[in-house]
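Re: Re: token formats

Sure, here are both.
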Amino acid sequence: MAIGSATRETATIVPEHRRGTFLPTLFGLPLTSKAENTVYDFMKRLSPTDYDGGYWNFYEYRDNPLFLAPASRPRYRIESELTEHRGEVSAEVAGIVATLLAFAHLTRRYESEFFEQRFYRLLIFSVRHPEAAEIARVTG
């Protein structure tokens, strides 16, 4: 099946009462803080003008933690040496890209099959995302 004809998938925001278990489940307990900060650092590098911290939404797909996305504004300008893409993307796309970059970095840094599996799960989800074309443009 071609990507263009694939079924579009959406993730849901994790409810407040389950946020406490989201990050340890997504990143694994030993590296939760390191991994979380890695996502934030990549977001700052992707969008140095628009992103300056703030609240993040946590997203799950089929009851499994998947990615996090900044919630302080609806769109972010991407202008970074990390990608050749220059332009605005939705907060959700920015979060998916920042999370993918973090998983890729953590996979290499810790030679971690756990992070590699998380990376591929999110990558597969991203090609079925309603903004898949935008994600592909940013990630090149």
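Second one below.
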Amino acid sequence: MKILSFWKPILWLSIILVLSLIPGNKLPGIPLFPHIDKVVHALMYFGLAVLLVRPLKRLPGSRPYLWSVMICLVIGTAVEYSQAYLTVNRSGSFYDELANVLGAIMGVVFFNMLIRKLTREKIA
């Protein structure tokens, strides 16, 4: 497996880690609407899941959609625990993790639907 094929998800993961682990007092304090952080979590992991699928598809015998969601689940859980125990003014949340996983699932479903649509258009 070539690690270079994973440069996009690694870059995106770096952004997620920076945003997730900066001290809570450095974050904007006025949300646009209640629970916007859950939408942000879902979007971040949506992006990570989409970026993971293509390099995972290149691995022989892999199940890229399943592995993409599982990787997001493990990373999201690790980030939530890190927020709870390693950061200042941050807390881990089950609901944040749920938003992470739902975002990842939506990401792989979106990717699958997009690939099917593009494949049908090429055949037609």
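The two ends are 34 Å apart (CA to CA). The CA atoms of residues 3 and 79 lie 22 Å apart.
- S.
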